[in-house]
Write a structure and sequence with these properties.
Length: about 100
């Protein structure tokens, strides 16, 4: 079964301190959904072409379906409500290769 991944890139964060509530709720939701954080804020990034070096988060799940279910979970939806204004985010769920 192919793994699933959440890939989040944050081109703009106007007030990083306001992300605290989202981060706490999202972390709990990811853990409850079986996700494992592979990269996080503060990690090194080398951007090429149109890439950006701002915050990049990569989370692994045992399957694509598990990744989708974690995003759709009540716990993660509550985290999204806490995501503050002024945060620009490119988020996607991708299927890995078996």
């Amino acid at each position: 079964m192919a793994k699933g991944f959440w890939v989040s890139v944050y081109p703009a964060i106007s007030d990083p301190e306001r992300l605290t509530a989202y981060n706490e709720l999202a972390g709990s939701a990811v853990q409850a959904g079986g996700g494992r954080v592979l990269s996080l804020l503060g990690g090194r990034v080398v951007a090429h072409e149109a890439g950006i070096t701002q915050r990049v988060v990569l989370i692994e799940f045992d399957s694509f379906e598990q990744a989708v279910a974690a995003y759709e979970s009540e716990a993660y939806q509550k985290a999204l409500v806490a995501l503050p204004d002024g945060v620009e985010r490119d988020f996607r769920i991708v299927e890995g290769i078996d």
